[in-house]
Amino acid sequence: MASSFTRLLSGRNTAVLLASLGAGTMATGFLLTENGSLVAEAKKKLYPPSSDFPDLRKHNNCMATALTPAIYARLRDNVTPNNWTLDQCIQTGVDNPGHPFIKTVGCVAGDEESYEVFADLFDPIIKDRHNGYDPKTMIHPTDLDSSKITGGVFDDNYVLSSRVRTGRSIRGLSLPPACSRAERREVERVVVTALAGLKGDLAGRYYSLGDMTDHEQQQLIDDHFLFDKPVSPLLTCAFMARDWPDARGIWHNNEKSFLIWVNEEDHTRVISMEKGGNMKRVFDRFCRGLKQVEHLIQERGWEFMWNKHLGYILTCPSNLGTGLRAGVHVRLPRLSKDPRFSKILDNLRLQKRGTGGVDTAATGDTFDISNNDRLGKSEVELVQMVIDGVNCLIECEKRLEKGQDIKIPAPIAQFRK
Amino acid sequence: MPFGNTHNNYKLNYKVEEEFPDLRKHNNHMAKVLTKEIYGKLRDKQTPSGYTLDDVIQTGIDNPGHPFIMTVGCVAGDEESYEVFKDLLDPVISDRHGGYKPTDKHRTDLNFENLKGGDDLDPNYVLSSRVRTGRSIKGFTLPPHNSRGERRAIEKLSIEALNSLDGEFKGKYYPLKSMTDAEQEQLINDHFLFDKPVSPLLTCAGMARDWPDARGIWHNENKTFLVWVNEEDHLRVISMQLGGNMREVFRRFCVGLKRIEEIFKQHNRGFMWNEHLGYILTCPSNLGTGLRGGVHVKLPKLSTHAKFEEILTRLRLQKRGTGGVDTASVGGVFDISNADRLGSSEVEQVQLVVDGVKLMVEMEKKLEKGEAIDSMIPAQK
C-alpha cells in the first residue's frame, strides 16, 4: 500500500512525507532506495547513451581510438557483479586526452570481470596495444622457469642496475580503481600475512606508507624503491589515489633486492633488482620469490587473477599477460646520440625511459631500457629478448667508441600465431 | 559519481570498522563531525540519483587539511544530499556557519536599494569591487555527480537563458573547449575566468571529470557581469568592476540575477532553494546566500598591524590573496570579503563589506600619518 503510493512521488517528497508521518530514518532511507531504481530508469530514458558519449575529438589514446558510439550505447548500462560501469573504466581516458611521450591506454579495469563484461571495448584495445593479440582466440604462455635463460650478465661499465617487475592481483577483490577501503585493507592483510612467511634471502619487513617518516620515504624514492605519491592524472582520474595512504605500503627483504608494493596501481607490484648487470640473478630471484609468494597465498585459500587468454589480470590493459617489465639502467653516451638509436630499439622490441621511470626524460647519457611487450610472449622469452637486446646495444656503443660503424639489427618477429 | 550507487551495496558486506576512513591526521569539518555511529547509520543510504555517503566525504578523506583555511571536506551530489545525509551535514553546517541550527530559517534579500552607501570607497585604495554567488538548477544533479549528458543539458539551458538577456546585460558565451589558449590566459589575468581544475579539493570530489566538456564563461560586452557554467556549481554569477563603487556592483548583481531567474522560471526550471538552507550549492560552505562580496584593497600598513586579524574577525570579514582562494597576498593588496553565507541576507552581508572596508581604509590612512588606530577598533559585529 505504502509502496504504490510513494511511487507517485519524487524521492525528496517521499522523505518529507514520511518524516511528517513520523517514520524513522531507516524506513525513509529504504524507500528512497527502492524509489531510486525507478528514478534511475527514468534518467536512462532522459539521457540516452548518445547524450553521454564523451567528446574525444582531441584525444589520442587507445580508448579514444576504440570507443564508438555503438559500443558505448551497447555497454553503458551494463555493470560487473561488483557494480562497476563502463563510464568508470573510461573516465581516465576522457580526462587525459594524450601524453607527450607515449600513447596511453585510456581505460582501466575495476575488477576481473571488467575484461569480460566490457570485452567489446577491451578486446580492440588489447589488440591495438599488444600487436594484434586477439583475446578471443589466442592463448598466452606463462613461463617462470628462469633456468632457461642464457647469458644475462652484463658489463658493469655500462649497465648500472638491473630490474624485473610485474604485478599480481588477488582474485575475489576489486582492483585499485574500484576497491572500497575495506577491500583495500583486506588486500594488504592477505599480502602482508603471506609475505611474513618468506625465509632466507627473501626474509623481510613491511612498511606501511601511513606510518613511514618523510625521511624514510624520501630515501626509498631516491633508491628507486618506492612508488610516487599519486600526482599523475593518469592514476588520479582513474580513482586509484582515493583514501591515500590508507592500506598502501612497501615490503622488502633485508637486502633490498626483492620488493613488493602494496595497493598502488595494482594489488601488488613485485620487483627484483640490484645494482650492476647480473640480470640472470635478478630474474632467478624474481621467479623464485613469485612462486613462493603464490604458494603462501594459496595456503590461505587465495589465488592470483589469471586466465589462459589474458594471462595475469592487472588494472591497466597494457600490463596484461606477463605484466613484466625487465630493464636496465645503461650508459649509452654515443649510441643515444646516433640518429639510428630509435630504430635499433624498435627492432629489438625495446623501449627507453628516463631514469625516473615512466613519464620522465633521461638525464645525461643513462637510459632505462626495457621490453615493449607484455602479452603473447612468456616471461622467459621477454627477459631473453631484453638480455639479447641490451647486449646488442652495448656492442653498438663499444663499436662507436672505437670509431667503427654499427648495423641496425633485423626486427624481431612478434609472437607466434 | 554518476555511476549508479558506485559499488555501495557491495561494500555493505564489510563491517563499519572495516570501511570507516582513517581520519586521525585530518583537520576539516567533515573529519571533526564524522563518527563510526554516523557512518554506520548512513552508509546504506543513497539519494534518488544514487549519491552515497562515501561520495559525499571522499574529498575530505583525500585532503586532510589546508594551510590557509579549514576546509569543509564534503560535498553534495544533488539537492537531496542535504536531506538524506543530514546527520552528517547538519553538524558540519552548524560548525561552518556559526552554530546554525537545523530549525533555523534563512533570509533572502536581493533588493539592492536596501544597501546603505557603498558608492564612496576610496579608489586610491580600493582597486576593484566584486560580488559573486552560485545557483543550482532544480532537477539536475550537482557537479560532483552529474553525467556528461546532464552537464551538457545544463550548459544548453544556461546558454539559452543567458542569450536572451539584453541592455547592459547583453553578452556572449565562450565554451571552454573552443577558447584559444591566448583568450583563456587573458580571461584568467583579468580575474574573469575560473582555473583549470588542479586543486585536489575539487578533483577528489569528481568535479573536474570530462574537463572541459560543457564548461564555459558567459559575459556581457562591458565585462562587468559574468556567469561561469559548470565549474564548482551549475552557475556562478559575478558582478565586478574596477574601483570602489560597490553599490553599483551590487545593483547590477541583483538586477542581473533576478532577470536570469525569471528566464529560467519561464523554462520551468527554478533554482534550488529552501527556507532553511537558502540557495543550495555543491559545497556546504556556500549555502544560504552563496554570496562573496569583496574588494581588492591596498592595506600595506594595516595588514602588518598586530590587530589586523582581530579587526577582520570583528568585522565578520576574511582576507585572501589577489589570486582568490588558496593564494597569498601580493604587495600589500588583499582580497577582503564577507565571511558569512548562511543566516544573514545578501544585503546584510554586502553591508558588512561596505562598512568594514570603509573603516579599514580610514585606519590605513591614519597609520600612514603615524597615528594610532586603537580607538577605531570596532566591537564584534
What brief labels describe this structure?
heterodimer; A: 417 residues; 38% helix; globular; disordered N terminus; B: 381 residues; alpha+beta; ATP-guanido_PTrfase_N (chain A); nucleotide-binding (chain A); creatine kinase (chain A)
Describe this structure in words.
Chain A: InterPro entries: ATP-guanido_PTrfase (IPR000749), ATP-guanido_PTrfase_AS (IPR022415), ATP-guanido_PTrfase_cat (IPR022414), ATP-guanido_PTrfase_N (IPR022413). Chain A: It holds the Pfam family ATP-gua_Ptrans. Chain A: This is creatine kinase. Chain A: It is a peripheral membrane protein. Chain A: Belongs to the ATP:guanido phosphotransferase family. The complex is a heterodimer of chains A (417) and B (381). Chain A has 417 residues and is of the alpha+beta class. Chain A contains 15 helices and ten strands. In chain A, strands 2-3-4-5-1-8-10-9 form an eight-stranded antiparallel sheet. In chain A, strands 6-7 form a two-stranded antiparallel ribbon. In chain A, helix 2 packs antiparallel against helix 3. The model of chain B has no long low-confidence stretch (mean pLDDT 92). Chain B is of the alpha+beta class. In chain B, a hairpin with a 4-residue loop joins strand 3 and strand 4. The radius of gyration of chain B is 21 Å and the shape is globular.
Strand content of chain A: 5-15%
Q: How would you sum up the major sheet of chain B?
A: 8 strands, antiparallel
> Reading side by side through the largest sheet of chain A, how are the strands ordered?
2-3-4-5-1-8-10-9
- What is the mean pLDDT of chain B? 92
Going by helix content, strand content and strand pairing, the class of chain A is: alpha+beta
Shape of chain A: globular
Helix content of chain A: 25-40%
Distance from first to last alpha carbon of chain B? 41 Å
In oligomeric terms, what are we looking at? heterodimer
Tell me the helix content of chain B: 25-40%
What structural category do the secondary elements of chain B indicate? alpha+beta
Element-by-element helix/strand order of chain A: HHHHHHHHHEHEHHEEEHEEEHEEH
Global Rg of chain B? 21 Å
What general form of chain B does the structure show? Answer: globular
